Amino acid sequence: MTNLFVQVEIHQQSQLPFVLYCKPNSDRIVGLFQQNDHLYFIESFEETGFVFAPFDGNTMSYIPHEYSDIIVEKVSYSDFYFDKIAAFSIDDEAKNAFVDLVQKGVNVIKMNQFQKVVLSRKEKVALYDFDLETTFKKLVHSYPTAFNYCFFHPKIGLWIGATPEQFLRINDKNIQTVALAGTQKAAFIDNVIWGKKEIEEQQLVTDFIVSSLNKKVDVIVVSKPYTITAGSLCHIKTDISAILKSNTHLKDIITSLHPTSAVCGLPKEEAKTFILTNEQYDREYYSGFLGELNIDVASTNTAQSDLFVNLRCMKIVDDFAEVFVGCGVTKDSIPEAEYQETVNKSLTMKKCIQ
């Protein structure tokens, strides 16, 4: 066991907060180990540390850099192997409930109450001999292009994820974000053909981000959409970069973008109201955001923030993993197909805990 995971074990036994994470295409795992069990909240957005924000965005917790010990280790895959095929079964009752929810969303969209809504569900998976170190290494090994993390706070719980989506990267006045939507299971990226529903959904996400940023930036550049892979899944991605106006602050950008239409819908408030009224469960930190706030921990660069949308994640509760998955719903959505999309997404987590 390395120094990093020795410290993880000590913090777990002492019920002290910590976070491990590995950035996309990075060869380093960073660990922040808080020195007390206090639950800190973001107030001014000038704080430095690792932020962990929920979907509703009302209270944003963080692990402060100033009250944490830091350990950085190189990623190592030596003597490490596991079966990549995850077993799964269909819960007909849960499937029918989600199909009905999606159909309700489609019906409301056709009534012109909103253009898009992102609907989700939570699946409970039994754990046998769960080991945090092994699970985290599986994530890093399986999803090197994702933001892999493990966050623990005794007042929040243990969360683990491998998200493919950047929320926001800021370095001084330069910002970068992405529009990511559409999901397809494909063995080879060259074989992917996108349908009207996925193309429209992705364009809605792009338009939302651009319109949210327009009055807050001097220059904005939007790439053409292209296909990327995340594990065994493919998505449509658009890169967006901009230069902040001199009077624009980080808080202005985050509050205008979160939750993005990639996890909520359009218009945002109408879609969010539908979600909170109809999903019948608490998303908690799923589809929130997380990452380094006002600091690159490994280099202590205080001009940088590197934040990600909390997708492809699970919460460990006793001997179960609560796996969170969702899908974007538009007027062209087919409820059965949307349910299958959530099944495909759930395998991201399942294959690392089974």
TrEMBL record:
Q: Which residues form the Chorismate-utilising enzyme C-terminal domain?
A: 95-345
Which InterPro entries has this protein been placed in? ADC_synthase, Chorismate_C
Where does the source fall among the domains of life? Bacteria
- UniProt-listed Pfam families: Chorismate_bind
Protein's UniProt name: Chorismate-binding protein
Species assigned in the record: Flavobacterium aureirubrum
